[in-house]
Specification:
By secondary structure, the protein is α+β, with helices and mostly antiparallel strands. The chain has helices spanning 48-54, 79-85, 89-117, 121-145, 148-155, 161-170, 236-241, 265-271, 275-307, 318-339; strands spanning 5-9, 17-29, 35-45, 65-69, 73-78, 176-177, 188-191, 196-198, 206-212, 215-219, 222-227, 232-234, 248-251, 255-261.
């Protein structure tokens, strides 16, 4: 018997309900070219837009198209029933696990499409990340100083494809924070200066909440961030999906974290009533931002195809172009720093 496909909803539809996948498959189209599948039993799908519209201050329509087949069993889950279910531990955990899977699968799409833009992927990735870090440091300085000329300077670079590539490699959204209670003090662990809390490409089933200290985040030996705000949590993908770690986290000074495992997750959710809600909202934001990134990268692919429509067929390696743009950025930072007599611009190049 041939499979027939049934559309659950289309991109830009009004999100009227979530869905319960009793068994089978739901295929999601992030674009006409990019699809992924959620498969299994008793999974709650189609939650992103419901959460954003009813649990966050947003008003969005469907960001993807979802279809199923006639061999799968899918039932509508009205908004009211979905929101009521989010008060249940098992229901909220189900939603979080599906969202985490969607984040992981859309991450893969982003990286695949970025690779199509970059022939020499490894080097280009490093250079894109360095470019992103420099512009991001400039943005932080602007946030402190509010200098109009600095804002104008940044605007020339933060919309560039290289900046977006670097961002997509290691930053899907801003850190999520939660104010932990003294009820979780028995789950706290201390890591001295230099300790590795978790290592890139290793398996893990724990997530953490920072209680004090600062943590350096490295991807492929490149420092990409420092976690230093109390309440920031990290490692949730490993906890929910048993995925390998995407980064190495090292204690920058004496660090105290709350360690959460699968075994104590329910206990923590009961002691910290808003924990699962905040976790779910964080994953929702990541899924939403990933879909927006897919759209942006696809537009770049279209532009690249148009640019390469003529010529002699010879291609300049992407990393050479990126290195050239990175050097221009560095030179321009130094030049504007001299022109404005802005000594703080020199610190942009310092690795902390």
């Amino acid at each position: 018997m041939a499979k027939n496909f049934i559309k659950l909803y289309s991109m830009n539809d009004d999100p009227e309900s979530a869905y319960l996948l009793n068994e089978g498959n739901v295929f999601f189209y992030a674009s006409e070219m990019d699809k992924y599948v959620i498969k299994g039993k008793n999974l709650i799908v189609g939650a992103t837009e419901i959460i954003m519209n009813h649990m966050m201050e947003s008003s969005i329509r469907r960001i993807e198209t979802a279809i199923t087949d006639n061999e799968s069993v899918v039932k509508k889950l009205p908004v009211e029933k979905f929101l009521h279910g989010m008060n249940s531990y098992s229901f909220a955990l189900n939603v979080s696990m599906v969202l985490a899977k969607q984040v992981a699968l859309t991450n893969s799409i982003i990286h695949k499409n970025l690779n199509m833009l970059s022939g020499d992927t490894g080097k280009n990735r490093e250079l894109s990340m360095e470019y992103y870090v420099l512009v991001d440091r400039l943005k932080k300085e602007y946030g402190k100083r509010k200098l109009p000329w600095l804002g104008e300077f940044i605007s020339r670079y933060e919309t560039s494809l290289i900046y977006k590539k670097g961002e997509a490699f290691f930053k899907s959204s801003e850190p999520t924070r939660i104010a932990t209670t003294t009820n979780l003090s028995d789950k706290m662990m201390e890591y001295p200066l230099g300790s590795v809390i978790c290592a890139e490409d290793t398996e893990g089933e724990e997530m953490y909440i920072l209680e004090s200290g600062a943590i350096d985040v490295k991807i492929k030996e490149n420092k990409v961030a420092t976690i230093e705000e109390k309440g920031t949590f990290f490692g949730e993908m490993a906890l929910l999906l048993n995925e390998k770690r995407g980064a190495t986290l090292t204690a920058k000074n004496n660090v105290v974290v709350t360690k959460i495992t699968k075994e104590n997750l329910k206990e923590i959710a009961e002691k910290q009533e808003d924990f699962l809600k905040i976790l779910t909202i964080s994953l929702t934001k990541k899924h939403y931002h990933n879909i927006m990134k897919i759209e942006g990268v696809n537009q770049s692919l279209i532009e690249k195809t148009m640019e390469n429509g003529g010529g002699d067929g010879k291609k300049i390696p992407e990393s050479i172009k990126t290195r050239s743009e990175l050097e221009k950025l560095k030179n321009n930072i130094e030049e504007v720093g001299r022109q404005k007599d802005a000594d703080f611009m020199k610190t942009i190049f310092q690795k902390s």
